Amino acid sequence: MSKVLDLYSKAHSIPVVGDRLFSFAFAQMAPYFWSIRPRFTVIEPNHAELVIRDRRGVHNHIGTVHAIALCNGLEAAMGALAEASIPADKRWIPKGMKVSYTAKATSDITCIAETDPEQWTGDDPDLPVRVRGERTDGTVVIEGVIRLWVTAKPPKN
C-alpha cells in the first residue's frame, strides 16, 4: 500500500476530523494546494475525490469559483490518485493539463480524478488521467485530462 493511501486510511478512520487532518497534511506537500483548502473524500487506486468549498477566497470577479482554483483541485485529486495507484517500481511527474470550462462554478465543487488499472502496468510512459469538477447539483463545470510521465525508478546504488 502506498504511503498516501496508508495515511488516508488511518486518518479516515478517525471520526469527524480524520479527513480534515489528512487534507491539511496533503496540502502541505505542495503549498499552492492549501490555497483551495481541499477536503479529500475518496482516495483509492484509480479514483480520488476532493471538495473545494465555495468561499470568497476562491472566487473570481463574478463571484464563482475561479479557474485556477478548479485546476488546483483537479491537480491535487490527480496527485492523490497517482500516489495511490502507481506500482512501487515506478515514478510519475505531470507533463501537461488540458481542460475545458463547461459551466459556472456556483457551489462547492467536487474534483474527481480517474484512471483504469491497466494504465499503470503498460509500457507507455504517457498516462492520461481523466479529471472533472462537479457542482453540488451534478453539473460538470470543468473537465479534461492531466497527462503524466510514468517511468521506472532508477536503481538504488
Short structural summary:
The protein has helices spanning 3-12, 18-29, 67-85, and strands spanning 39-44, 47-52, 90-101, 109-114, 126-134, 140-152. It contains three helices and six strands, in the order ααββαββββ.
Q: How is this structure best described in words?
A:
By secondary structure, the protein is an alpha+beta fold. The protein has three helices and six strands; from the N terminus they run H-H-E-E-H-E-E-E-E. The protein has a six-stranded antiparallel β-sheet. Strand 5 and strand 6 form a beta hairpin.
Low-confidence stretches: none
Return the average pLDDT rounded to an integer.
Answer: 94
Shape: globular
Largest sheet: 6 strands, antiparallel
Q: SSE order in H/E notation? A: HHEEHEEEE
Strand arrangement in the largest pleated sheet: 1-2-4-5-6-3
> With helices defined by DSSP (H or I, 4 residues minimum), what is the helix count?
3
Helix content: 25-40%
Strand element count:
6
N→C terminal distance: 24 Å
> In percent terms, what proportion of residues is strand?
25-35%
Measured on Cα atoms, how large is the radius of gyration?
16 Å
Instruction: Provide the structure class.
Output: alpha+beta
Key descriptive features of the protein:
157 residues, alpha+beta, 6-stranded antiparallel sheet, 6 strands, 33% strand
Please write out the topology.
Layout: H1 3-12, H2 18-29, E1 39-44, E2 47-52, H3 67-85, E3 90-101, E4 109-114, E5 126-134, E6 140-152
Antiparallel strand pairs: 1-2, 2-4, 3-6, 4-5, 5-6
